[in-house]
Design a protein that fits this description.
The complex is a heterodimer of chains A (300) and B (477). With 300 residues, chain A is mainly alpha-helical. Chain A is 75% helix and 4% strand. Chain A has one domain. In chain A, β1 and β2 form a beta hairpin. The radius of gyration of chain A is 19 Å and the shape is globular. Chain B is α/β, with parallel strands linked by helices and 477 residues long. Chain B has a domain of 87 residues: GMP Synthetase, Chain A, domain 3 (2-Layer Sandwich), CATH 3.30.300. The N and C termini of chain B lie far apart (63 Å). Classes of the chains: A mainly alpha (300), B alpha/beta (477). At the A-B interface, α2 and α11 of A face α1, α2 and α3 of B.
């Protein structure tokens, strides 16, 4: 089939590259989160279950954090991100490895990332190493936090509302106030960039940590709520609407108005469909399982 | 989850700072605990810290007690006329008090509480509900409680009970204690309400009514005095009822000595693994103590200070010695009519100085209550006989004379035990004497007709509450 002369070849390449990176990040991360749920129990506080108000608080933090990131000096942002990742990794993996290995591992991962960002970004290989090392941190963090929430009582209902809220947030802060765009540009190449990405030639392709987290949450919560049948539906949704659609959207938009620089946020695609999928699952499968019911059905 | 964290933080800060706790916040925490159990089936890690407080850490325990004593004494010195005078007379500075150095302050007695009731009430507190002691050991004392106390205690109890699975939303608690024990009845009903459980307050009604309610009403928890439990066992056996007729999963006894014979019979008849045996006292509420599986009595150190004073010298008791429990509930857990160094006259024996190995080993322990100090008997040979020894020995008779009715006294240096005829009926006096000798009691028996049994020793189940359904129908009235 002949190439469409209206779509530039580099945009096609970039979109396909973005698609590969996004599929790798979203599917790998979400599947690992399910494996974690099946194998590991996260410690939780004596009292407390995730509820609807917690989602409100989460959305509020997500909405304000980017502003804070942009306002703070760079070193303070790095410290804040380091604190976030140290917390996520230490809580998520202290049941899997001993304290010495855990803290050594966290120190090495974060330290190496900061070192790579400061010294290795002069070459494509350096960039690739930087992304690869950062991707490990992002996947580990997203898997841990998703499990922390879901094993803390977050239900599929909460995740669906969360995704829907983020869809609205993404539209507003990409189209109306281009805060997300500013953040993506600002973070590129800085230590602990909260993105899953890779570089090929002059192209960088990346998926935000928040998006990774939502995909993990959706798959893990679906699996916990209704089992493998719902997890399959969720995985298809993550693949099609979380990875494929946002990656290829620039091609379609460019085909319509020839503006290749339009940024299409992933949650705008994923959130509404995730919510509809939740409504469908609830109608089809009924009440969600509690964590206790899940544990009884699939003991670790 | 985030809100729960904030609520826990607020509760912890209130406890550390010693300010009145927000009872609404506590009630919401109970709700959070219920939701946690519903989602996960059990609370998360560190639940023991919430339930037991600083019990596990001796340093923290000492610090907590010192702060509690100073805070409580400072408030009493300013707001309680009785204690303002008492502290001034003793020349103590509340800010310098230490848990181990309270000897200069005389203990408060029940007579103080009865004779000068009004002087115990703190300035600025509004009375809400009065509760009285049952008067089984003399004149009843009346304690006024504020609305704050009435809301605080059930919330604390419910939080602990939900987290330790003592109270579930599916539970139906049947309360067979005297309806006049207003504080205890209120605590049961209100803690059930907070925990989402149902509560059936029956009082000391005829045994058959209580058994019907247990069997047909689906009660899962039962709260009663040991003497009433003994009557329930006899009634159930008379009716041929057994574990299959009940849905009980827990029984709590308190207020009297629970003998091993009655406890075993209660477990067997009602199909529960173990009967909870707690200590509580109107004058020192909300302080309490719990019996462990090894028979120790473990004293609450979160809500107050417990001193163990030697019966002879009133100095801190040494290991192995008999001691009276002297208790001080801390502010902010006691509000309207607090007591400081209240001498309960409940006697315990100090345990040897060895590490405890029971499930409640983090909390300080003594032997179980042996009886009231005024009821101890000393025989000619110098042996001390405690009410617990006597109750256990009498209720251990093969004739099952439950609840134990007896009168004990010392005549010419020998223990004389008066029993109703039914207690030795079919067993014989000689066999009964041998039974008591096996229990370490050399007794001279005196047998009286069964009609005199109740007058020998009053028990809590004597506080009968009649009902129209249990009375003979009135004809022509």
């Amino acid at each position: 089939m002949p190439a469409d002369p209206d779509v530039p070849a580099d945009l096609v390449f970039q979109s396909v590259f973005q698609l590969c990176v996004t599929i790798a990040g979203a599917v790998l991360c979400a599947c690992l989160a399910v494996v974690y749920l099946r194998k590991v129990r996260v410690e939780r506080p004596a009292i407390g279950v995730f509820n609807g108000r917690d989602i409100g608080i989460l959305v509020f933090f997500l909405a304000t954090l980017p502003v804070i990131y942009l306002l703070l000096p760079r070193w303070a942002v790095t410290c804040l991100l380091a604190l976030t990742f140290v917390s996520a990794l230490s809580i998520g993996y202290r049941n899997l490895v001993g304290p010495l290995r855990l803290w050594l591992g966290i120190g090495l991962l974060l330290g190496l990332n900061i070192w790579l960002a400061r010294t290795m970004l002069g070459t494509v290989l350096g960039w690739q190493l930087f992304w690869l090392e950062g991707d490990v941190i992002m996947v580990l963090a997203a898997v841990a936090v998703a499990n922390l929430y879901v094993q803390g009582g977050m239900r599929l209902q909460h995740v669906a509302w969360f995704a829907l809220g983020l869809a609205g947030y993404d539209i507003v802060f990409t189209m109306v106030f281009p805060l997300t765009n500013a953040l993506v540009e600002d973070f590129l190449g800085w230590p602990l960039d909260p993105s899953f990405g890779m570089r090929l030639g002059i192209y960088n392709a990346a998926l935000g940590l928040g998006d990774l987290l939502v995909y993990c949450l959706f798959l893990v919560a679906s699996y916990k709520a209704y089992g493998m049948r719902a997890a399959r539906v969720a995985l298809v949704l993550v693949f099609v609407l979380g990875a494929v659609a946002p990656s290829l959207a620039p091609l379609i938009i460019n085909f319509i108005d020839a503006r290749g620089d339009v940024v299409v946020p992933a949650q705008t695609w994923f959130g509404p469909f995730a919510f509809l999928a939740y409504l469908w699952m609830r109608r089809r499968y009924g009440r969600e399982r509690t964590m206790r019911e899940f544990q009884l059905a699939a003991p670790v | 989850m985030f809100e729960t964290g904030i609520r826990q933080f607020r509760m912890a800060m209130g406890m550390v700072r010693g300010r009145r706790l927000d009872t609404g916040n506590l009630a919401r925490l109970v709700d959070d605990a219920r939701k946690t159990i519903a989602e996960f089936g059990e609370p998360g890690m560190d639940v023991q810290q919430i339930v037991d407080g600083p019990a596990g850490d001796p340093g923290a325990r000492e610090h907590f007690a010192t702060q509690g004593i100073r805070r409580t004494a400072a408030r009493l010195a300013a707001e309680s006329p009785f204690y303002a005078r008492r502290f001034a007379a003793a020349g103590v500075d509340p800010a310098k008090l230490r848990p181990g150095g309270l000897g200069a302050i005389p203990v408060t007695t029940k007579a103080d509480l009865i004779d000068r009731q009004d002087e115990f009430r703190c300035a600025g507190t509004a009375r809400h509900l009065a509760t009285r002691t049952t008067g089984t050991t003399g004149r009843p004392a009346e304690i006024w409680l504020s609305r704050y106390e009435i809301e605080l205690w059930p919330a604390l109890i419910a939080l602990s009970a939900v987290l330790t699975d003592e109270l579930r939303t599916s539970d139906v608690m049947q309360v067979n204690i005297s309806s006049r024990q207003t504080a205890a009845v209120h605590l049961n009903a209100a803690s059930c309400r907070l925990a989402g459980a149902a509560c059936r307050v029956l009082g000391v009604v005829p045994v058959d009514e209580a058994l019907d309610a247990l069997a047909d009403g689906g009660s899962t928890l039962l709260s009663a005095s040991p003497s009433y439990l003994a009557e329930l066992v006899l009634g159930a056996r008379r009716r041929g009822m057994g574990p299959g007729d009940f849905r009980l999963r827990g029984i709590q006894a308190g207020g009297e000595v629970l003998s091993p014979s009655v406890a075993a019979a209660v477990s067997e008849t009602f199909g529960v693994e173990r009967v909870g045996d707690n200590f509580g006292m109107t004058e020192v509420i909300p302080m309490s103590a719990r019996a462990c599986r090894q028979g120790h009595l473990h004293h609450d150190i979160n809500l107050g200070l417990v001193e163990y004073l030697d019966l002879e010298t009133s100095a801190p008791a040494e290991p192995g010695a008999l001691a009276t429990l002297v208790m001080t509930p801390f502010f902010p857990y006691r509000d309207c009519m607090p007591v400081f160094r209240y001498d309960t006259r409940d006697v315990v024996r100090m345990l040897p100085e060895e590490p405890l190995t029971c499930e409640l080993s983090a909390m300080p322990a003594t032997t179980h209550l042996l009886g009231k100090a005024g009821h101890l008997l000393r025989t000619g040979s110098g042996d001390l006989v405690t009410p617990r020894q006597l109750v256990e020995a009498v209720e251990g008779l093969p004739t099952r004379p439950w609840p134990a009715r007896f009168r004990a006294s010392v005549h010419n240096g020998r223990l004389r035990l008066t029993l109703p005829a039914g207690a030795v009926d079919g067993f014989g006096e000689a066999a009964a004497r041998a039974h008591f000798a096996e229990a370490g009691l050399d007794v001279a028996l005196e047998i009286v007709p069964d009609g005199q049994a109740i007058s020998l020793r009053h028990v809590r189940s004597d506080l009968h509450e009649t009902t129209f359904s249990a009375r003979p129908a009135l004809i022509g009235a």
